[in-house]
Amino acid sequence: MAKKQKYYVVWEGFTPGIYMTWDECKIQIGGHPSAKYKAFDNRAEAEFAQKRNYFEFVNKAALPKKESGIKQSRSAIIADSISVDAACSGNPGLMEYRGVETQSGKQLFHQGPFKNGTNNIGEFLGLVHGLAMLKKLKNDHTTIYSDSLIAIKWVKIKKAKTKLELTNDNKILFELIERAENWLKENTYSNPIIKWDTVSWGEIPADFGRK
Fold first, then answer.
1. CA–CA distance from 28 to each of 11, 64, 129, 190 (Å)?
2. Are 83 and 205 in contact (CB under 8 A)?
3. At a CB cut-off of 8 Å and minimum separation 6, what does 3 contact?
4. Mean pLDDT of 86-91
5. What is the three-class DSSP state of 17?
6. DSSP calls for 53-91
7. Using CA of residue 12, residue 15, residue 21, residue 22, what is the dihedral sign?
8. What is the phi-psi region of residue 42: left when phi exceeds 0, alpha when psi lies from -120 to 50, beta otherwise?
9. How close are the terminal C-alpha atoms of the chain, in Å?
10. What are 14-46's pLDDT values in tens digits?
11. Apex CA 209: angle with CA 158 and CA 141, to 5°?
12. What is the DSSP-derived secondary structure letter of residue 32?
């Protein structure tokens, strides 16, 4: 029997709208800190729901605590995880990024500094570096935390949509971006990428401590 067609309404996500597959829906909600979505059996219901409030279509009692404004306990942090972060002096400016074990803070990789970069590019490269490292280790389960929604979106769409202009100083960065985008297009991964909850947990463990 053919699988029944579902229509997924995304009220809050990277790009709100109606999606016809779960995979498309996941791209919009994965890692988003306040994602709101629901599946419907037909397009008419989905289009009706999209124009109305999300809370009319869900069981409010089943909402996670975060929806009510209650901070998440640090016990919610996934132990089997790594964290990535970037630092940039200026925008653009001197940029570097790194990845660490979330629990111990042990540094796993560090790249830079690179001239004439941006923080978002560093966050993006850090995420792809982490994914590639885990792939090489045949690790398909460890979570990756990032505090950058933009970088998480870029990874999911496999494209760094930076407005940074190419110069002689940052040519190597654009080469790294192209390499990262190609890696995403040529590889699959199942490691969860989750937005670090800075409000609840403080700065991400990979933070460079320069704020």
1. 10, 19, 22, 16
2. yes
3. none
4. 87
5. strand
6. -GGGGS-GGGS-GGGGTPPPPGGGS-SSEEEEEEEEEET
7. negative
8. beta
9. 57
10. 888 999 998 888 888 887 777 888 888 888 888
11. 40
12. -
Tokens of 129: 């570096």
Q: What six digits make up the tokens of 58?
A: 């869900």
Of 44 and 146, more confident: 146
Q: Which two tokens stand for residue 88?
A: 């940039």
Q: Tokens 């803070």 label which residue?
A: 105
Amino acid at 45: E
Centre a 10 Å sphere on the Cβ of residue 192 and count the other Cβ atoms it contains: 14
Spatial neighbors of 40 by CB under 8 A, at least 6 apart, are: 6, 7, 8, 9, 46, 49
Query: What is the pLDDT at residue 168?
Result: 92
